[in-house]
Design a protein that fits this description.
This protein is 50% helix and 0% strand. With 367 residues, the protein is mainly alpha-helical. The chain has a single domain, classed as Glycosyltransferase. α1 packs parallel to α5, α3 packs antiparallel against α14 and α13 crosses α14.
């Protein structure tokens, strides 16, 4: 724990353990809320390409969009602030106070889930699973130690697990995340596999993991998007995928790479848009699919010099937008394209997995 992030987390933990009730629907304590944040412009396919790639700009975008969502919506979501907890630590060279503030929000939620006030309780089982896993991945990428609040959330997650090993995931017909129970099982596997201090080997996790592995043994991933997440989880958690499943998933992903070096989210599954029309599997390459695939392939051991990775990195470096984000068209409608927020996180993870020191050589952008 170091810098302003570490100091703020200590303060937040003291406040939470001291029983502070945050005002309203878990609004942030003013002393820790930081300065005002200017919300980023809406995700748009018309935003110009950046003159040159910049991870510093990506950090600024991720901070702004995650803070705006957390302060305005007062909830967690897979496409923005949960994704932020997983991706932002990769850009630790670019300091800021946003991470501490967002950590405080989620730690506050966990600490008060059992309060008498109904508004403090988990909104859905999904909130428990997603919060526990995102905090665990964040712990692994920052302090390397499992935070007590994270452990409490993970332990609670098992109490909600169904006999078949899955969870009652939020299903709003919003692919690729709020869509099916399979993704919830994947997100749980990612969190437990990443959790520091050997959490996956603890007695608290043992029986739940047996059920979770059984779920994956008896249920094939419904699409390549989910298989890619399963491939990611399998790098940290045994029994999530067989060797042949891993090899086949890698082959399928490489076969889908576009001539321009990128990947397209609609090519990873079959989903209809809200108006009933199918997504175009031949749609242009996008930041979400390219970042996700490059990052996960790197986790499997592919070298940064292997042709699919090199070409994917080239696409990412030449398709960042002026704001710092990478655009991805929503699978659902053209109102907000929130998936571009998560896509920017995966683009960052992909680039840093191939060039860990790259951000250290980059100057911060002018104020």
């Amino acid at each position: 724990m170091n810098g302003r992030y570490g100091q703020a987390r200590v303060v937040a933990a003291v406040l939470i353990l001291g029983g502070l009730t945050l005002a309203g629907a878990w609004s942030l304590e003013p002393a820790l809320a930081g300065s005002k944040v200017e919300p980023p412009s809406r995700n748009s396919p018309d935003e110009p390409i950046a003159a040159s790639p910049s991870l510093a700009r990506a950090a600024e975008f991720l901070d702004a969009v995650a803070l705006d969502w957390t302060r305005t919506r007062q909830c967690g979501t897979c496409h923005t602030n949960y994704a932020y907890l997983m991706a932002r630590p990769a850009l630790r060279e670019f300091e800021g106070t946003a991470m501490a503030e967002i950590r405080q929000f989620f730690e506050g939620r966990v600490a008060h889930w059992d309060d008498a006030n109904p508004s403090s309780r988990p909104r859905w089982d999904t909130e428990v699973v997603a919060t526990a896993s995102a905090l665990a991945i964040n712990d692994a990428a920052t302090t390397g130690t499992l935070h007590p609040t994270t452990r409490a959330a993970l332990d609670r997650m098992w109490t909600l697990q169904r006999p078949d090993g899955s969870w009652d995931w939020l299903k709003c017909d919003w692919p690729p995340y709020e869509y099916d129970d399979y993704y919830g099982a994947l997100f749980a596997a990612l969190g437990v596999g990443a959790a520091p201090d050997g959490y996956a080997r603890t007695e608290a996790a043992r029986q739940g993991l047996e059920r979770l592995r059984g779920f994956f043994r008896t249920n094939e991933p419904p699409n390549l998007h989910h298989a890619t997440f399963q491939l990611w989880a399998s790098q940290r958690l045994e029994g999530v995928m067989t060797r042949s499943q891993k090899e086949r998933t890698v082959e399928r992903l490489i076969a889908l790479q576009r001539p321009d070096g990128g990947w397209s989210l609609p090519s990873l599954g079959q989903w209809d848009r809200r108006d009933g029309t199918p997504n175009d599997a031949s749609a242009p390459s996008d930041g979400y699919a390219t970042g996700l695939v490059v990052f996960v392939l790197r986790q499997t051991g592919l070298s940064a010099q292997d042709d699919p990775i090199r070409r994917g990195v080239t696409w990412l470096r030449t398709n960042q937008r002026a704001s710092g984000r990478w655009f991805t068209r929503s699978l659902n409608n053209d109102k907000a394209h929130y998936i571009a927020n998560a896509g920017t996180g995966f683009a960052v993870l992909a680039l840093k997995s191939c060039d860990p020191a790259g951000a250290a050589r980059e100057k911060a952008p002018p104020e």
